[in-house]
Amino acid sequence: MKRIHLALALVLAAPLLAAAQETAAPQLQEDPRAPKFHDVERGFFFGLEAGYMGFLETPTADPVKYPYAGTGGGRSGGLVLGVTLGTDVGDRVSVAAYGQGGNQTAGSKYGAFGLFAGGLDLRVAVWGKKDRNDNERFYLYVHGRGGFARTYPEGLFGTNDLVFAGGPGIDYFTPLRHFSVGLAADYVYATQAKASGFAVYPTVRYTF
């Protein structure tokens, strides 16, 4: 009978002993060598753009003011520079304000004009590729932008305009963490001038 009582006591005491051992077990300390940052930074960013923009036609907005320009100067092209300031919304979407400007050179009688625009840009990544550490660094995206534009000299290509642009692009988040580099190719349309064009420009972005 004593043996039965002893066995029952051991059975009842076993869970209590196990719980006591778990409570007394020391907690594992966090490895101080473990990285405390993200391999790919997301959030507030600043970007730079520099490339080529051209229009397939350059109609004359005010032929009376510019009689030697005729009805238009044909194709135009030139350097375009831009800046962006925005934020990521998750891993695949970003919203930014942008400013972009540059000079366009058309036919000899038409001459050159400046085009400066500012507005909003929306980008959506449609495909991403992971590196060997399982971090998505390379993206294929589509984006669209639109904003108010001014052209100089006034009355040649126009004065006030609304310019819309959009197209595909690629973006690579470098091992430098905060930096990404890419390339964009856009279709461009100036609504008042009714002129279509294109732009190709590399991009550099710094995420804070």
Give your account of this protein's structure.
It is a single chain. The chain has 208 residues and is mainly β. The chain has one domain (44-207): Porin. Helix content is 11%, strand content 55%. It contains one helix and eight strands; from the N terminus they run H-E-E-E-E-E-E-E-E. It has one helix spanning 2-24, and strands at residues 44-55, 76-89, 93-105, 112-130, 136-152, 160-173, 179-190, 195-207. A hairpin with a 6-residue loop joins strand 3 (93-105) and strand 4. The longest helix has 23 residues, at 2-24. The protein is elongated, with a radius of gyration of 30 Å. The termini are far apart. The model has no long low-confidence stretch (mean pLDDT 89).
In short:
By secondary structure, this protein is mainly beta. The chain has one helix at 2-24; strands at 44-55, 76-89, 93-105, 112-130, 136-152, 160-173, 179-190, 195-207. Helices cover 11% and strands 55% of the residues.
- CATH topology assignment: Porin
Summed up, the domain count is 1
Name of the level-1 CATH class = Mainly Beta
What is the count of helical runs? 1
User: What portion of residues belong to β-strands?
Assistant: over 45%
Radius of gyration, CA atoms, in whole angstroms: 30 Å
Instruction: Report the CATH architecture.
Output: Beta Barrel
Classify the helix fraction into a percent range.
10-25%
* C-alpha termini separation: 75 Å
Q: In this structure, how is the largest beta sheet organized?
A: 8 strands, antiparallel, barrel
Structural class: mainly beta
Give the integer mean of the pLDDT values: 89
**Annotation, overall tally of beta strands:** 8
Assembly context of the chains: single chain
